[in-house]
Design brief:
The chain is mostly helical and 110 residues long. 35% of the residues lie in helices and 0% in strands. It is flat and about 85 Å long.
Length: 110
Amino acid sequence: MRMTVSVKTALFLGFCLASATGALGQAGLGSAPLSGDMYTPPDHAMHASPVPMAQAQSLFVGSGLVTVAQGEMPLWEAVPERQEIPLGDAARRERKEHATAKKARKVWEN
C-alpha cells in the first residue's frame, strides 16, 4: 500500500509547524529556560504633593558667555511695517492679470 500526501495536507502541516514555532518563540519556551527571578515593578510610595520651589540657578555659570545690552527695544520697532492690500483690490488685480494672461494655443486631447 502506497501512502501519498496531497499538497493541501503538506501545506496544512507546514502551517501548523510554523504556528507552533511562533507560539513557542512568543512564550519564551524555545529561546531561554525560565528562571525563578520574576520581574517586579518598583513600588513608588511617594506621590505628587505640593513642595516649596527651589532657588533659581543660572544656566550661564561657567560657560564664559557674557551678555551686554543697553535698554529694551520693543518688537514693533524691530519688525518693518507691512503694507496690507485690501482684499477687493487684490481680487481686481488678479482678475485683470487673468484676463491679459497668455492663453494656450493648442488643446491636447488623449
